[in-house]
Amino acid sequence: MIKIFLLTHPREVAKVTNTGRLVTQAISAGNSENVSAQVLLWSRTEPDPLLLSSIETASTLLLYPSEEALSALPAGGPCKVEYPLLNNQPDTAQYPVADACNFIILDGTWQQARKIYNKSPYLKNLHKLHLVTQTQSRYTLRRNQKSSGLCTAESVIELLKLKGCFNCAEDLDNLYQQILIRMQVGNNRV
Predict the structure, then answer these.
(1) Cα 52 vs. chain centroid, distance in angstroms?
(2) Whole-prediction pTM
(3) What is the pLDDT, as a whole number, of residue 186?
């Protein structure tokens, strides 16, 4: 079972331009690939107990671009993972990507995601995963976006491909495309 936890900034919850909500809409509980997605509201002073218990397992990774993050690169279908070398051999023991079942994704603007990370000590010791992809973001509804950055929905699509969950990735991508078209045509009204 793959669990995706969207740690969502409180200001994002009601925004019509938030793509994190699409993840839970597209990934239904009864999907054939055994994937679940859940939104958890971030609080600086009161971390979610479910999130904290998930972090205690060794199979939880934080999707967050940082210098110490493991890079996952696309290779046609599923992403290939680039491990650091230890004695000229990939150090796979240090980075349990293949075994990872729980993924935490910071859902908000880049500034909000950075704040969540910096103000949440419990996230700092997690293994981090950085998706390196040739995919260009289709998300143009907000200003000040990172040129190499993906929105939450796009990140989850790439993560699902990395884990071989192609049906869930396609379902989310289809919903995301529909919403983008509706938002662009309807002046951000969904």
Answers:
(1) 17
(2) 0.81
(3) 66
